[in-house]
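job 3f2a | input accepted
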Amino acid sequence: MMMSPGGLRLPETAAVLAVRRGVRDWVAGQGGRGPVVVGLSGGADSLALVAAAVVEAGAVTAVVVDHRLQEGSGEVAERAAEQARGLGCVAAVVVPVEVGRAGGVEAAARTARYAALESMRDGRPVLLGHTLDDQAETVLLGLARGSGGRSIQGMVAWNSPWGRPLLGVRRAQTVQMCADLGIEPWDDPHNADPGYTRVRVRNEVLPLLEEVLGGGVAKALARTADQLRADGAVLDTYADELLRAARSIGTGADSGPGDTDRPTLSIEILATAPPALRRRAVRTWLADQGVAGLMNAHLQAIDELVSNWRGQGGVAVGGGSRDHRLVVTREHGTLAVRAQPRI
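job 3f2a | predicted structure (343 res):
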């Protein structure tokens, strides 16, 4: 058995070793042990992550975000914090948050949660308990929505400051590890609510696919994400080169407030590039210009301004201010983002 700094003896069961291996490999990939924060919900995934991190990482601080969306959430959060202390964390804190409604409750809760974790990390990486099963669900949802290759690349093990050491670990293993340790995880009722699309994918769609296709679907989806992410990294490199070549500074006559220093892109250079690279470059450029909520339909319409120009007007995109909206236009041989008064 392995003794944690807090005195907890970790049995060397298959589940415990699998979770510990995931954390150990992640730590090694980051250059070795050091203090970390773990986002703790009280569920099996994050509890198993806490226990493994105490042994395999450095000093662990558990942060429990209380979304206050359910009656008794404060008690659930305090119980999780107490469990973290029992597992050997140097500290465990509860952070209550206010959850808005922008984009739906699920998205708003995620925004509030990440903001709370960011506020508590103090320069340390934050480890999250996403498993291989979460990865498979993410890839499947992205595929079904037709959002493009980037959306089905899934989650990455490290996207500073967020670390996900358990992307190669199955959810069943984290549940079994908690049982092996004799700790009872919290079962969030939202995880059984069919009103959430992800819950139905988890409880209905993936099990059906596993049955029909003879198993191995979750692993195959996660493996696909890894392969697409590797391919995407190469495409991003070439797209960045294209973006640098196409950039220019535009001061067109139609410029609006704050537009005079906005970089524009050369239509001639963009038009001669392969569509896949052109769209990647344009997506990155738009993000730099403060464009938000970009959908595939926006990107296709913007690409038409470059590759199939017929005199059509600009494409309105998300972002801007209360008084001005952002519009992508073609002008003077360039692609430009302009601020136009809202009507």
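job 3f2a | The longest strand covers residues 324-331.
job 3f2a | closed
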